[in-house]
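hey so i finally got around to running the thing on that chain from the lab meeting. sorry it took forever, my laptop kept dying and i had to restart like 3 times. anyway pasting the input first so we r on the same page abt which one it is
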Amino acid sequence: MRRMPQFLERYFWDVDFYSLNLKKDTYFIIERILEEGDIKAIKWMLRTFSPKTIKKVLQTSKKLSKKSANFWAIIFDLPKNKILCLKKSFQKTHRIAWPY
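ok and heres what got predicted. didnt touch it at all, straight out
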């Protein structure tokens, strides 16, 4: 199992960083870097995971902020109606569950 670089540890403050598995936790790792990552983390993500995998996470994630989802939709040239967390129906449901 390949380990993640030490500089990424700060993005995974809420989990055991050393138990993260690049294969099993792909979705979680990409999601966190899309939301929180700096340039160095993003470059690592782009080298480590395929564009297809990253796009799939972007399209299906329920945890990305509206701001991040919009940004990455532009970067990856994806229509906003293909991004789950940008769909109006999801935003209404999300707001009801978390009204803040």
